[in-house]
Amino acid sequence: VSSHTAADREQVLDELLEIGLAVASERDLYALLDRILEAARRFTRAEAGTLFLRDGDRLRFAVVQNDLIERKLARPGLQQRFEAEPLRLSEPSLAGHVAKTGEVVNVADAHAIVVHQTRAFNERFDVASDYATRSVLAVPLQDLTGGIIGVLELLNAVDDSGATVAFHRDHEKLIRALAAHAAVAIRNARLENISFKDSLTELYNRRYFGLRIDEEVKRHTRFGHPLSLVVVNVDCFKPITAEHGQAAGDEVLREVSRLLLRHSRSFTIIARLDGDEFAALLANTPKAGAATYAQRIRSVIESHPFAHGTVTASFGVAGLPADAVSADDLLAAAQRALRDAKDQGRNRVSAL
Amino acid sequence: VLELINALDRGRVVPFDSQYESLVRSLASQAAVALRNARLEDLSFKDALTDVYNRRYFTIRMEEEFKRHCRFGEPLSLALMDLDHFKEVNDRFGHRAGDEVLREVAQLLVKHSRSFSIVTRYGGDEFAIILVNTTKAGGLTYAERIRGVIEQNRSAHPVTATLGIASLPEDATTVDDLIVAADRALYEAKRLGPNRAAAP
């Protein structure tokens, strides 16, 4: 474990760089955390590892890897077993100690630790999973303000002969760097969760649209004003990106967004639902008014000089109280109408 | 784009070693992540502490509701709420206790407001609630109910609240004036003694 050849260092650097790139591009948080933990284990030759996420007064087992147990139990089974039982910060444990103090714990034998109020080894999980923990390296995941959002814990470093040995001191810094990558990835995912705007078009995103359509349907139910929904889908969008590239496709979406904003009333809620699909929620507007609005937008898009020629869009219109009673039904009705517009030959407005 | 020019070797300009490409690429991608994070924070409409809407959203939504009021003529009321002696909670029990009080109050507001009322943290210990399609009389009834709910709440650090209400069309003709009117009503209520609700 302690042999630090130039080749080793280069491999470590490469892997760190790759993970740096993955943090920017990987959309699936758990896939990324899994990869980070795996890299941490590979560098330190740890038999097992856990990435804990703090959730109030507990640590949740977000990612669990254990070669020995996995041989007996498939990965999903292992994950489920641990997920069901989070580690409480009120019970003494090494990961809990790291979460509470921010200290790095690096011990050769977890069982040899003199019992301390917080820094004690918790045998519950060894017993539950029939595993024997000896060496432990645990580092905190810290956010910008120094708050601890999780713990990366590695168990049982193995040497060339297969014997369990202590984690090398030199590895602490590297594992801290990996933990920092994990912390950034988690922060990214959390920020996405509180964001209400689509970062490509700066329109409202699907999450906000979901909240807002619920709110407007309740307002409709209470006050009885009509409410209409228009869903918009760019015609033949895939061929545009296939032919002119992703950047050109993105520019079309941005341009359509700008047209929607410019030609709608300031209190119309415009969102990007998905890919090339948009929605406009029109308060106090009956279905007939929404159809007129959709026709206007349709012709604006059709006659707009896009960078590489003509772009058209199809529109589905639905309204309360005519087509639905709930937000879900309203969206489904508008999407049915949109499919109808596509089936009729695109570049048109359909209201069922 | 991250651009580096003129690699130096003892003062002499030399070509970039191709082995550094992946390192620079990785640094650029981390810069991209940082930029994206900063933008995402700008796009957030929620207050991180209390999980109700933030002041940025209040401003956007107030403007939108004002325009809807102008177009459709529905009444619109604004409630501004300030916690009484909140500073003492912070001073005596620490910021953690103060934060807990703010979270509790935010939850009470959400629980006791209609699902289509817009509850926002306006700043510090001040909350603003946009009451759509609500007259001044309705706004006052709401404010009185919230005042009572907060007073009755059994908490580790009991607090009371003072509220000021202002409404369209009677109290203002612009968004800014409406906020000023609600703020003035709040100030007037505080002057008369905390734990009350008032409208101009």
In short:
By secondary structure, chain A is of the alpha+beta class.
Describe the secondary structure blueprint for this structure.
The complex is a heterodimer of chains A (352) and B (200).
Chain A (H helix, E strand, L loop, with lengths): L5 H20 L3 H16 L1 E10 L2 E9 H6 L2 H9 L3 E2 L5 H8 L3 E3 L16 H6 L6 E7 L5 E11 L5 E2 L5 H24 L11 H18 L3 E8 L2 H8 L1 H17 L6 E6 L2 E7 L3 H16 L10 E8 L6 H17 L5 E3 L1
Parallel strand pairs in A: 11-12
Antiparallel strand pairs in A: 1-2, 1-6, 2-3, 4-5, 5-6, 6-7, 8-10, 8-11, 9-10
Helix pairs in contact in A: 1-2, 1-7, 2-7, 9-10
Chain B lengths: L6 E3 L2 E3 L6 H23 L11 H18 L3 E8 L2 H8 L1 H18 L5 E6 L2 E7 L3 H17 L8 E8 L6 H18 L4 E2 L2
Parallel strand pairs in B: 6-7
Antiparallel strand pairs in B: 1-2, 3-5, 3-6, 4-5
Features:
heterodimer, A: 352 residues, alpha+beta, seven-stranded antiparallel beta sheet, five-stranded mixed beta sheet, 12 helices, 12 strands, elongated, B: 200 residues, two-stranded antiparallel sheet, 6 helices, 7 strands, 51% helix
